[in-house]
Protein backbone atom coordinates (compact mmCIF):
# COMPACT_ATOMS: atom_id res chain seq x y z
CA UNK A 1 0.00 0.00 0.00
CA UNK A 2 1.32 3.46 -0.90
CA UNK A 3 2.04 5.52 2.18
CA UNK A 4 0.15 8.79 2.39
CA UNK A 5 -0.22 11.82 4.61
CA UNK A 6 -3.55 13.54 4.25
CA UNK A 7 -4.84 16.76 5.76
CA UNK A 8 -8.60 17.08 5.69
CA UNK A 9 -10.15 20.41 6.59
CA UNK A 10 -7.47 21.16 9.18
CA UNK A 11 -8.13 24.24 11.25
CA UNK A 12 -5.82 25.56 13.96
CA UNK A 13 -6.90 28.27 16.33
CA UNK A 14 -4.83 29.82 19.08
CA UNK A 15 -5.89 32.02 21.95
CA UNK A 16 -4.64 35.52 21.25
CA UNK A 17 -5.27 38.68 23.19
CA UNK A 18 -6.55 41.69 21.32
CA UNK A 19 -8.06 39.74 18.43
CA UNK A 20 -11.70 39.46 17.46
CA UNK A 21 -13.20 36.65 19.53
CA UNK A 22 -9.98 36.26 21.52
CA UNK A 23 -8.45 33.79 19.14
CA UNK A 24 -6.41 33.70 15.99
CA UNK A 25 -7.05 31.25 13.16
CA UNK A 26 -3.54 30.24 12.11
CA UNK A 27 -4.69 27.57 9.65
CA UNK A 28 -8.11 27.44 8.06
CA UNK A 29 -9.58 24.44 6.25
CA UNK A 30 -6.28 23.10 4.92
CA UNK A 31 -6.59 19.97 2.82
CA UNK A 32 -3.92 18.21 0.80
CA UNK A 33 -2.39 14.80 0.26
CA UNK A 34 1.26 13.79 0.10
CA UNK A 35 1.95 10.44 -1.47
CA UNK A 36 5.11 8.38 -1.17
CA UNK A 37 4.70 6.94 -4.67
CA UNK A 38 5.81 8.42 -6.89
CA UNK A 39 8.15 10.40 -4.66
CA UNK A 40 7.46 14.11 -5.01
CA UNK A 41 8.54 17.48 -3.71
CA UNK A 42 5.68 19.72 -2.66
CA UNK A 43 6.48 23.20 -1.43
CA UNK A 44 4.30 25.24 0.88
CA UNK A 45 5.14 28.89 0.38
CA UNK A 46 3.86 31.99 2.12
CA UNK A 47 4.98 35.03 4.04
CA UNK A 48 5.92 35.05 7.71
CA UNK A 49 2.95 34.28 9.94
CA UNK A 50 0.87 32.69 7.17
CA UNK A 51 0.54 29.38 9.02
CA UNK A 52 3.27 27.25 7.40
CA UNK A 53 5.00 26.06 10.56
CA UNK A 54 1.68 25.37 12.19
CA UNK A 55 0.84 23.01 9.33
CA UNK A 56 4.26 21.34 9.76
CA UNK A 57 3.53 20.87 13.46
CA UNK A 58 0.12 19.43 12.66
CA UNK A 59 1.64 16.95 10.20
CA UNK A 60 4.35 15.97 12.70
CA UNK A 61 1.80 15.42 15.45
CA UNK A 62 3.32 18.19 17.61
CA UNK A 63 0.09 20.18 17.51
CA UNK A 64 -3.38 18.66 17.45
CA UNK A 65 -5.63 20.66 15.10
CA UNK A 66 -8.66 22.39 16.55
CA UNK A 67 -10.74 20.79 13.79
CA UNK A 68 -10.20 18.47 10.85
CA UNK A 69 -7.94 15.46 10.52
CA UNK A 70 -4.33 14.57 9.85
CA UNK A 71 -4.27 11.05 8.46
CA UNK A 72 -1.30 8.73 7.98
CA UNK A 73 -2.16 5.89 5.63
CA UNK A 74 -5.80 6.81 6.13
CA UNK A 75 -5.66 6.76 9.95
CA UNK A 76 -5.87 9.67 12.40
CA UNK A 77 -2.28 10.25 13.59
CA UNK A 78 -3.53 10.98 17.09
CA UNK A 79 -5.20 7.57 17.32
CA UNK A 80 -2.57 5.24 15.91
CA UNK A 81 -1.85 1.87 17.49
CA UNK A 82 1.66 1.41 18.92
CA UNK A 83 2.89 -0.34 15.77
CA UNK A 84 1.30 2.25 13.47
CA UNK A 85 2.78 5.06 15.55
CA UNK A 86 6.27 3.52 15.33
CA UNK A 87 5.88 3.26 11.56
CA UNK A 88 4.75 6.90 11.40
CA UNK A 89 7.64 8.12 13.59
CA UNK A 90 10.12 6.37 11.38
CA UNK A 91 8.58 7.39 8.08
CA UNK A 92 7.76 11.04 8.74
CA UNK A 93 11.00 12.83 9.57
CA UNK A 94 11.41 16.53 10.33
CA UNK A 95 14.20 18.85 9.29
CA UNK A 96 13.96 22.23 10.99
CA UNK A 97 15.38 25.66 10.33
CA UNK A 98 17.84 25.59 13.18
CA UNK A 99 19.19 22.15 14.00
CA UNK A 100 21.20 23.73 16.79
CA UNK A 101 18.09 23.46 18.94
CA UNK A 102 18.06 19.70 18.42
CA UNK A 103 21.69 18.98 19.20
CA UNK A 104 22.63 18.83 22.86
CA UNK A 105 25.63 21.18 23.14
CA UNK A 106 27.27 18.88 25.71
CA UNK A 107 27.38 15.87 23.42
CA UNK A 108 29.30 15.23 20.25
CA UNK A 109 27.19 15.31 17.08
CA UNK A 110 27.74 11.56 16.67
CA UNK A 111 25.15 11.04 19.38
CA UNK A 112 22.24 12.14 17.23
CA UNK A 113 23.26 9.55 14.63
CA UNK A 114 23.93 6.73 17.09
CA UNK A 115 20.60 7.39 18.79
CA UNK A 116 18.85 6.81 15.46
CA UNK A 117 20.84 3.60 14.90
CA UNK A 118 19.83 2.30 18.32
CA UNK A 119 16.25 3.56 18.44
CA UNK A 120 15.35 2.13 15.06
CA UNK A 121 17.62 -0.96 15.25
CA UNK A 122 19.47 -0.03 12.05
CA UNK A 123 22.56 -2.16 12.75
CA UNK A 124 23.34 -5.15 14.92
CA UNK A 125 27.02 -4.45 15.57
CA UNK A 126 29.03 -1.33 16.34
CA UNK A 127 31.04 -1.77 13.13
CA UNK A 128 27.87 -2.00 11.03
CA UNK A 129 26.45 1.06 12.80
CA UNK A 130 29.60 3.07 12.15
CA UNK A 131 29.67 1.98 8.49
CA UNK A 132 26.08 3.15 8.12
CA UNK A 133 26.80 6.50 9.77
CA UNK A 134 29.83 7.06 7.55
CA UNK A 135 27.93 6.10 4.41
CA UNK A 136 25.14 8.53 5.30
CA UNK A 137 27.53 11.37 6.07
CA UNK A 138 29.18 10.87 2.69
CA UNK A 139 25.75 10.83 1.02
CA UNK A 140 25.23 14.38 2.26
CA UNK A 141 28.72 15.44 1.15
CA UNK A 142 30.28 15.46 4.62
CA UNK A 143 33.60 13.80 5.40
CA UNK A 144 33.04 11.54 8.42
CA UNK A 145 36.50 12.23 9.83
CA UNK A 146 35.81 15.98 9.84
CA UNK A 147 32.44 15.67 11.54
CA UNK A 148 32.49 12.73 13.94
CA UNK A 149 33.85 13.51 17.37
CA UNK A 150 32.98 17.19 17.12
CA UNK A 151 30.60 19.23 19.23
CA UNK A 152 27.71 21.10 17.57
CA UNK A 153 29.35 24.50 17.99
CA UNK A 154 32.41 23.21 16.13
CA UNK A 155 30.36 22.73 12.96
CA UNK A 156 28.96 25.37 10.63
CA UNK A 157 25.20 25.83 10.30
CA UNK A 158 25.31 24.12 6.90
CA UNK A 159 27.23 21.16 8.34
CA UNK A 160 24.78 20.80 11.23
CA UNK A 161 21.87 20.84 8.76
CA UNK A 162 23.57 18.13 6.73
CA UNK A 163 24.14 15.98 9.83
CA UNK A 164 20.35 16.10 10.20
CA UNK A 165 20.05 15.07 6.55
CA UNK A 166 22.50 12.21 7.21
CA UNK A 167 20.16 11.04 9.94
CA UNK A 168 17.29 11.17 7.43
CA UNK A 169 19.42 9.24 4.93
CA UNK A 170 19.99 6.49 7.51
CA UNK A 171 16.30 6.18 8.28
CA UNK A 172 15.08 6.32 4.67
CA UNK A 173 11.69 7.72 5.65
CA UNK A 174 8.87 7.92 3.13
CA UNK A 175 8.34 11.60 4.04
CA UNK A 176 10.54 14.54 5.00
CA UNK A 177 8.86 17.57 6.56
CA UNK A 178 11.36 20.37 6.03
CA UNK A 179 10.39 23.62 7.74
CA UNK A 180 12.49 26.54 6.43
CA UNK A 181 15.58 24.31 6.41
CA UNK A 182 17.73 26.60 4.28
CA UNK A 183 16.74 30.06 5.39
CA UNK A 184 19.82 30.40 7.59
CA UNK A 185 22.25 29.13 4.95
CA UNK A 186 24.18 31.05 2.34
CA UNK A 187 23.37 30.61 -1.34
CA UNK A 188 26.02 27.98 -2.07
CA UNK A 189 25.25 25.75 0.92
CA UNK A 190 21.55 26.25 0.26
CA UNK A 191 21.94 24.84 -3.25
CA UNK A 192 23.92 21.89 -1.89
CA UNK A 193 21.15 21.17 0.62
CA UNK A 194 18.41 21.37 -2.04
CA UNK A 195 20.38 19.09 -4.35
CA UNK A 196 20.63 16.51 -1.58
CA UNK A 197 16.85 16.63 -1.11
CA UNK A 198 16.43 16.08 -4.86
CA UNK A 199 18.92 13.16 -4.67
CA UNK A 200 16.86 11.67 -1.85
CA UNK A 201 13.74 11.93 -3.98
CA UNK A 202 15.37 10.37 -7.05
CA UNK A 203 17.59 7.73 -5.40
CA UNK A 204 15.62 6.75 -2.31
CA UNK A 205 12.03 7.66 -3.19
CA UNK A 206 11.56 10.16 -0.38
CA UNK A 207 8.69 12.63 -0.63
CA UNK A 208 9.33 16.10 0.81
CA UNK A 209 7.00 18.78 2.10
CA UNK A 210 9.23 21.82 1.77
CA UNK A 211 8.14 24.85 3.76
CA UNK A 212 9.56 28.22 2.82
CA UNK A 213 8.89 31.90 2.33
CA UNK A 214 11.30 31.99 -0.60
CA UNK A 215 9.92 31.51 -4.11
CA UNK A 216 13.33 31.14 -5.73
CA UNK A 217 13.94 28.02 -3.64
CA UNK A 218 10.55 26.67 -4.70
CA UNK A 219 11.44 27.30 -8.32
CA UNK A 220 14.76 25.48 -7.95
CA UNK A 221 13.13 22.42 -6.40
CA UNK A 222 10.33 22.12 -8.96
CA UNK A 223 7.51 19.68 -8.31
CA UNK A 224 4.27 21.08 -6.92
CA UNK A 225 3.62 24.17 -4.85
CA UNK A 226 0.87 25.31 -2.54
CA UNK A 227 0.58 29.02 -1.75
CA UNK A 228 -0.69 29.96 1.69
CA UNK A 229 -1.79 33.32 3.04
CA UNK A 230 -3.51 34.11 6.33
CA UNK A 231 -3.84 30.40 7.06
CA UNK A 232 -5.61 29.60 3.79
CA UNK A 233 -4.09 27.64 0.91
CA UNK A 234 -5.16 29.84 -1.99
CA UNK A 235 -3.41 28.25 -4.94
CA UNK A 236 -1.73 24.97 -5.82
CA UNK A 237 -0.31 23.21 -8.85
CA UNK A 238 2.92 22.40 -10.67
CA UNK A 239 5.59 25.01 -9.89
CA UNK A 240 5.99 26.06 -13.54
CA UNK A 241 2.28 26.67 -14.00
CA UNK A 242 1.84 28.57 -10.74
CA UNK A 243 4.92 30.70 -11.37
CA UNK A 244 4.11 31.53 -14.97
CA UNK A 245 0.33 31.69 -14.80
CA UNK A 246 -0.57 32.54 -11.21
CA UNK A 247 -4.31 32.66 -10.74
CA UNK A 248 -4.61 34.10 -7.23
CA UNK A 249 -3.83 37.78 -6.58
CA UNK A 250 -1.70 36.85 -3.57
CA UNK A 251 0.52 34.60 -5.70
CA UNK A 252 0.95 37.46 -8.17
CA UNK A 253 1.89 39.74 -5.28
CA UNK A 254 4.45 37.20 -4.02
CA UNK A 255 5.93 36.88 -7.51
CA UNK A 256 6.08 40.64 -7.95
CA UNK A 257 7.95 40.95 -4.68
CA UNK A 258 10.95 38.90 -5.82
CA UNK A 259 13.90 41.31 -5.95
CA UNK A 260 15.16 41.95 -9.47
CA UNK A 261 18.91 41.83 -10.07
CA UNK A 262 18.47 44.52 -12.73
CA UNK A 263 19.62 47.81 -11.11
CA UNK A 264 17.25 49.75 -13.38
CA UNK A 265 14.35 47.76 -12.03
CA UNK A 266 14.61 48.36 -8.28
CA UNK A 267 12.56 46.39 -5.78
CA UNK A 268 10.07 48.87 -4.41
CA UNK A 269 6.88 46.96 -3.75
CA UNK A 270 6.11 45.90 -0.25
CA UNK A 271 4.00 42.94 0.72
CA UNK A 272 1.38 43.91 3.26
CA UNK A 273 1.33 41.55 6.22
CA UNK A 274 -2.08 40.38 7.34
CA UNK A 275 -4.32 42.38 9.60
CA UNK A 276 -2.59 41.40 12.85
CA UNK A 277 0.27 43.68 13.72
CA UNK A 278 3.71 42.13 14.07
CA UNK A 279 3.72 42.98 17.76
CA UNK A 280 0.45 41.18 18.39
CA UNK A 281 1.72 38.17 16.50
CA UNK A 282 4.94 38.08 18.48
CA UNK A 283 2.92 38.39 21.69
CA UNK A 284 0.65 35.53 20.70
CA UNK A 285 3.65 33.36 19.95
CA UNK A 286 5.32 34.26 23.25
CA UNK A 287 2.14 33.43 25.14
CA UNK A 288 2.51 29.81 24.16
CA UNK A 289 5.13 27.47 25.51
CA UNK A 290 7.00 26.12 22.53
CA UNK A 291 7.59 22.42 22.65
CA UNK A 292 11.01 21.19 21.69
CA UNK A 293 10.41 18.58 19.06
CA UNK A 294 11.64 15.16 20.06
CA UNK A 295 13.13 13.17 17.23
N1 LIG B 1 1.42 28.29 19.83
C1 LIG B 1 0.90 29.43 19.36
N2 LIG B 1 0.10 30.19 20.13
C2 LIG B 1 -0.47 31.32 19.63
N3 LIG B 1 -0.29 31.76 18.36
C3 LIG B 1 0.50 31.03 17.55
C4 LIG B 1 1.14 29.84 18.01
N4 LIG B 1 1.87 29.32 16.98
C5 LIG B 1 1.70 30.16 15.95
N5 LIG B 1 0.89 31.18 16.29
C6 LIG B 1 0.44 32.25 15.40
O1 LIG B 1 -0.15 31.65 14.26
C7 LIG B 1 0.20 32.36 13.08
C8 LIG B 1 0.90 31.42 12.12
O2 LIG B 1 2.18 31.11 12.67
P1 LIG B 1 3.20 30.14 11.92
O3 LIG B 1 4.40 30.00 12.80
O4 LIG B 1 2.50 28.89 11.51
O5 LIG B 1 3.53 31.00 10.62
P2 LIG B 1 4.69 30.80 9.56
O6 LIG B 1 4.06 30.98 8.23
O7 LIG B 1 5.40 29.51 9.79
O8 LIG B 1 5.64 32.00 9.89
P3 LIG B 1 7.25 32.08 9.91
O9 LIG B 1 7.66 31.89 8.48
O10 LIG B 1 7.51 33.45 10.43
O11 LIG B 1 7.73 30.98 10.80
C9 LIG B 1 1.06 33.54 13.53
O12 LIG B 1 0.23 34.67 13.64
C10 LIG B 1 1.59 33.10 14.89
O13 LIG B 1 1.84 34.19 15.72
UniProtKB/TrEMBL annotation:
InterPro entries: AAA+_ATPase (IPR003593), ABC_transporter-like_ATP-bd (IPR003439), Oligopep_ABC_C (IPR013563), P-loop_NTPase (IPR027417). Keywords: ATP-binding, Nucleotide-binding, Transport. PROSITE patterns: ABC_TRANSPORTER_2. One of its GO terms (molecular function) is ATP binding. Residues 5-255 form the ABC transporter domain. One of its GO terms (biological process) is peptide transport. SUPFAM superfamilies: P-loop containing nucleoside triphosphate hydrolases (SSF52540). The keyword Thylakoid does not apply. PANTHER family: ABC-TYPE DIPEPTIDE/OLIGOPEPTIDE TRANSPORT SYSTEM, ATPASE COMPONENT, ABC-TYPE DIPEPTIDE_OLIGOPEPTIDE TRANSPORT SYSTEM, ATPASE COMPONENT. This is Peptide/nickel transport system ATP-binding protein.
Amino acid sequence: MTKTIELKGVQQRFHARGTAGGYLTAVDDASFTLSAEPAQVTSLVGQSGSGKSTIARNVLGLQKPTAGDVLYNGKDIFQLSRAEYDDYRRNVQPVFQDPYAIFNPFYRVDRVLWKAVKKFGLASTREAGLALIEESLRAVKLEPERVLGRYPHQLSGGQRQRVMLARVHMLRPAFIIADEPVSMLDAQVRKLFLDILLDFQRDHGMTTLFITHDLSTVYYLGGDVMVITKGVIVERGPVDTVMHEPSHPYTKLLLDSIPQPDPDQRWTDRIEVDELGEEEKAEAKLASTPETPVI
